[in-house]
Specification:
With 140 residues, this protein is mainly α. The chain contains 6 helices and no strands.
Length: 140
């Protein structure tokens, strides 16, 4: 038997005495490893070559990481209020679905607000337009 293979008893969840071993499964809250993976994916989405970036503009890498961490933390907090003490797998699934929706909503809100702010600011590379004032020669 290879190192990645389970014995038939272990695969069936049977303990050494032949009785079924208790199995515990918790989907909520997500592990820190899962939350970190969500942050990494958000950074890739914000700063990478994605449809979101093509439509709303890419976020510089220096800004993407703190923004992604804030988006994830806010989404987690919002979902934790609702499903913080999920007592069943079904409640945990509902909390995880809410967390996922909150991440998506907050990501979209962030890129839209950033895009709107960028459009509202005058371009930094171009000098301010000089107002056309009638010259003294034209007035004479």
């Amino acid at each position: 038997m290879g190192p990645d293979e389970l014995s038939p008893a272990a695969a069936a969840g049977v303990g050494g005495d032949g009785e079924a071993a208790p199995f515990s499964f918790s989907i909520w809250p997500p592990t820190q490893r899962t939350r970190d993976a969500v942050v990494r994916r958000l950074v890739d989405t914000l700063a990478g070559d994605t449809l979101l970036c093509k439509r709303y503009g890419a976020v510089p890498a220096a800004d993407a990481d703190p923004a992604a961490r804030a988006i994830e933390a806010e989404a987690f907090d919002a979902a934790a209020v609702t499903g913080g003490a999920a007592s069943s797998v079904e409640e945990g699934i509902e909390a995880l679905q809410l967390y996922s929706k909150e991440v998506s909503r907050r990501l979209l809100d962030f890129v839209k607000s950033r895009s709107a702010a960028a459009k509202a600011e005058p371009p930094k590379d171009e000098p301010d337009a000089v107002k056309d004032e009638p010259s003294e020669e034209a007035a004479a």
